[in-house]
Design goal:
1% strand, 2 strands, single chain, mainly alpha, 298 residues
Length: 298
């Protein structure tokens, strides 16, 4: 073992769990994508199942629910991109202005905690509080002469509720990367701004935000790659027969087709379509980022 290898050994060991995770759960399963072009039979296996070419993709694109699924998925993705994504940035900027005292640490701890709750708990609490007949808040509204809120059954509330859940549960946790980027800003830049007579807002606009620009662009590009991946668990738990028309997305559709109905080939074709769309968006966004003078993702 060379001296250079020995010096880097602790770093290699630190990287190893991450490499194993991607190898076992991201790259090796890609071999199973072949069943998207088959009429897969679990009893015959991959090597003996009949090939059907692009029939599963034709079925997807001609399905009567395809455009509704696409619209629902893109709508929730737009909510995540344009309403949720800026929230951690704004929250990180606010926390950064609190200095280094006890209140800042307390604030960070409080906003991180919801991340560790499962979506089952979050949706369950919402159901307990806003159930139409016996929800705590609805009972209080009814006892005080107000109309009950059909939060879980009225389709009009589904998307606002989806956004509010994400903001409450994940916005605080997502500030970690932005706070780390803010911690690396050279203090001399703020000192120079002070000497030029810049106020707090001018320093925010001219020093802090430009320092975050590359981090924001990289995370935005990565977020684009997940446009078709909304998150199965959260949406599925909020779904019911009353809001299914606007809440059914590709992730929940794949669950019903692949797990409940056992249509593995078709659900794999849907998953491959989602992945290809995400890859195309990442490549396009990265190219635009390069043209704009940024480093981009690669």
């Amino acid at each position: 073992m060379s001296a250079e290898w020995r010096r880097g050994l602790p770093l290699y060991l630190m990287i190893l769990p991450g490499l194993l995770f991607f190898l076992l759960f991201k790259y090796l399963p890609m071999a199973g994508l072949v069943i998207a072009f088959q009429s897969y039979n679990p009893f015959e296996g991959i090597f003996h199942s009949d090939w059907v070419g692009f029939d599963n993709f034709k079925r997807l694109f001609t399905d009567v629910d395809f455009y509704r699924l696409l619209a629902n998925t893109l709508t929730l993705s737009a909510i995540n991109l344009f309403l949720f994504f800026p929230a951690p940035i704004i929250l990180a900027l606010i926390i950064n202005e609190l200095g280094k005292g006890f209140f800042k640490k307390l604030m960070q701890t409080v906003i991180y905690l919801p991340h560790f709750l499962s979506w089952v708990v979050v949706v369950g609490l919402t159901s307990l509080l806003f159930a139409t007949q016996d929800g705590g808040i609805n009972n209080w509204l009814a006892s005080n002469g107000f109309a009950r809120i059909e939060l879980l059954s009225d389709p009009a509330y589904f998307r606002p509720l989806f956004l509010m859940h994400n903001l409450w549960k994940e916005a605080g946790w997502n500030t970690i990367i932005f706070l780390a980027a803010l911690a690396s800003v050279d203090p001399m830049l703020y000192e120079a701004a002070d000497m030029d007579g810049a106020g707090r807002w001018r320093k925010l606009w001219s020093v802090t935000l430009p320092s975050l620009r590359s981090t924001i662009i990289i995370l935005f590009i990565l977020r684009l790659g997940s446009v078709m991946e909304i998150g199965y668990e959260h949406v599925y738990l909020l779904q019911n027969t009353l809001n299914l028309k606007i809440s059914n997305i590709f992730d929940t559709y794949v669950y019903r087709q692949g797990i409940q109905q056992g249509d593995f080939s078709f659900s794999t074709a849907v998953g491959l379509f989602k992945g290809l769309v995400g890859l195309a968006l990442i490549m396009m966004a990265n190219k635009l980022s390069k043209k704009a003078g940024e480093e981009g993702l690669y």
